């Protein structure tokens, strides 16, 4: 992220056009205590804050959401122990990257308010375009799967063949699994991109950090990278 912010002219130019503040942002707190997580309204900000956005699959299970009945509570504190794992992981990522604010659709849009959905969905593209980076839960089938997964190292590490085969059919060297194409595994991409909103979220985000089932990967206007191909 620092390299992109400091050295990528096209990415910086895209972010310099940011002008709006989302109606609500999740305040993940300040180190070292971080205190409670809560919502903050646009009127509380005197200048445009840096924030991250979230791209994820909801799945079929019920999750904690912002409703007209708990809006007042969420502005005091969000009960993080009730959050699905994907959202908890996103809060952890936000803190570890040194950011204070995060936008997640189901926690920042009143889900049972038609008027709020209409007004917020109309500016959702601007919300993603204005974020510093989007956290993409690429490998999660639902909000309960999380961004951090237990990975089999034999899947995502290269296989090293030290000797030629007896018949000379296999050359020694480093071999990567077939799934390694582009910045994610095909089933991860298909799963997340089955959501219509995700196309908009990915295209408009100036930077995206993908958390796949076998690897993390990076995508911005000027550069794509994976763990095995950090230089793109």
Helix content: 25-40%
Query: How many domains, as an integer?
Result: 1
Q: Counting H and I runs of at least 4 residues, what is the number of helices?
A: 10
Can you list the strand order of the major beta sheet? 2-1-4-3-5-8-9-10
What is the number of E strands?
10
The percentage of residues in β strands lies in: 15-25%
Average pLDDT taken over every residue = 84
Distance between the ends: 15 Å
Structural class: alpha/beta
| Low-pLDDT windows of residues | 180-184
Largest sheet: 8 strands, mixed
Rounded to an integer in angstroms, the radius of gyration calculated over CA atoms is: 20 Å
Overall geometry comes to: globular
- Tell me the series of helices and strands, N- to C-terminal: HHEEEHHEHHHEHEEHHEEE
Short description:
Residues 51-201 form the Heterokaryon incompatibility domain. With 232 residues, the chain is α/β, with parallel strands linked by helices.
């Amino acid at each position: 992220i620092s390299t992109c912010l400091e050295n990528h002219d096209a990415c910086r130019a895209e972010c310099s056009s940011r002008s709006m503040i989302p109606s609500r942002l999740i305040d993940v707190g300040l180190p070292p205590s971080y205190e409670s997580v809560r919502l903050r309204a646009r009127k509380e900000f005197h200048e445009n804050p840096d924030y991250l956005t979230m791209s994820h699959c909801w799945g079929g299970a019920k999750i904690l959401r912002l409703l007209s009945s708990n809006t007042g509570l969420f502005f005091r504190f969000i009960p993080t122990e009730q959050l699905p794992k994907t959202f908890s992981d996103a809060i952890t990522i936000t803190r570890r990257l040194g950011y204070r604010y995060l936008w997640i659709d189901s926690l920042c849009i009143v889900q049972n308010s038609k008027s709020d959905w209409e007004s917020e969905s109309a500016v959702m593209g601007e919300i993603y375009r204005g974020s510093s980076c989007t956290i993409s839960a690429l490998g999660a089938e639902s909000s309960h799967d999380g961004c951090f997964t237990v990975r089999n190292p034999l899947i995502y590490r290269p296989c090293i063949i030290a000797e030629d085969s007896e018949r000379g059919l296999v050359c020694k060297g480093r071999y990567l699994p077939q799934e390694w194409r582009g910045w994610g595994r095909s089933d991860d991409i298909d799963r997340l991109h089955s959501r219509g909103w995700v196309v908009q979220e990915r295209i408009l985000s100036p930077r995206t950090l993908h958390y796949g089932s076998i690897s993390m990967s990076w995508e911005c206007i000027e550069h794509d990278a994976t763990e095995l191909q950090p230089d793109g």
